[in-house]
Amino acid sequence: EAQVTQNPRYLITVTGKKLTVTCSQNMNHEYMSWYRQDPGLGLRQIYYSMNVEATDKGDVPEGYKVSRKEKRNFPLILESPSPNQTSLYFCASGSLPAGVTDTQYFGPGTRLTVL
Amino acid sequence: GENVEQHPSTLSVQEGDSAVIKCTYSDSASNYFPWYKQELGKGPQLIIDIRSNVGEKKDQRIAVTLNKTAKHFSLHITETQPEDSAVYFCAASIRDSGGYQKVTFGTGTKLQVIP
């Protein structure tokens, strides 16, 4: 089954404790991205990657890091989490160059709470 | 950058009635407009999309219209059913020189279909 998986699905942590949220896709997609979803703000892009070893900032990259060492994996790293990073996070993937559709496939989400 | 506004933020309709969600965008270079449905506890899923060279697209009970001159697009759901209850996001995207589609999402509409 074609899918994007994220782990963990839920995480409660404390300020300053480094954490990593993993993302993996099995569709051989070149493009992967991380979004955060906050009430009233919709989905905002954090980082994206066009291919292995190619990452770039989205609209809200501060406080986050990413890496793309393998095509299927795109982990999101919070080196020193703060309460304002409490949010619902989504990983997404898509094919490049875009064909008939430019659709992105989203993972199930990771709800992060930073105390 | 692109700005996408979405209205209404919440919408309640009786089962069998129609629902309309409207979005406006700011950048006339946007050329791809997807709509995503997010069910509770899940990631957004594409339900329909439209390109800038098309004015209307229909898929069973769902239709999307695009007015490039006015820079607005709308989602129409007819004969609503309880399973249509979800949060709907519109988005507008622009392809940059590297082939990447920069996607900007609206803030979402929570649709409730009352049986």
Task: State the gist of this model.
The complex is a heterodimer of chains A (115) and B (115). Chain A is mostly beta strands and 115 residues long.
Could you explain the architecture of this structure?
The complex is a heterodimer of chains A (about 120) and B (about 120). Chain A is an all-beta fold. Chain A is about 0% helix and about 50% strand. Chain A has strands at about 5, 10-15, 20-25, 30-40, 40-50, 55, 65, 75-80, 85-95, 105, 110-115. In chain A, strands 2, 4, 5, 6, 9, 10 and 11 form a 7-stranded mixed beta sheet that branches. Chain B is mostly beta strands and about 120 residues long. In chain B, a hairpin with a 2-residue loop joins strand 6 and strand 7 (about 60-65). Chain B is globular, with a radius of gyration of 14 Å. The model of chain B has no long low-confidence stretch (mean pLDDT about 95). The interface of A and B includes residues 35, 43 and 92 of A.
Descriptive labels:
heterodimer; A: 115 residues; mainly beta; seven-stranded mixed β-sheet; four-stranded antiparallel β-sheet; B: mainly beta; six-stranded mixed β-sheet; 58% strand; globular
How would you sum up the global shape of chain B? globular
Low-confidence stretches of chain B: none
Distance between the termini of chain A: 36 Å
Rounded mean pLDDT of chain B is 93
How many strands, what sense, and barrel or not for the largest sheet of chain A?
A: 7 strands, mixed
Number of helices of chain A: 0
| Gyration radius from CA atoms of chain B, angstroms | 14 Å
- Specify which chain pair forms the largest interface: A-B, 26 and 25 residues
Mean pLDDT of chain A: 92
Would you spell out the secondary-structure blueprint of this structure?
The complex is a heterodimer of chains A (115) and B (115).
Chain A: E1 4-7, E2 10-13, E3 19-25, E4 31-38, E5 42-51, E6 54-57, E7 65-66, E8 76-78, E9 87-94, E10 105-106, E11 110-114
Parallel strand pairs in A: 2-11
Antiparallel strand pairs in A: 1-3, 3-8, 4-5, 4-9, 5-6, 7-8, 9-10, 9-11
Chain B: E1 4-7, E2 10-14, E3 19-25, E4 32-38, E5 45-51, E6 56-59, E7 62-67, E8 72-77, E9 86-95, E10 101-105, E11 109-114
Parallel strand pairs in B: 2-11
Antiparallel strand pairs in B: 1-3, 3-8, 4-5, 4-9, 6-7, 7-8, 9-10, 9-11
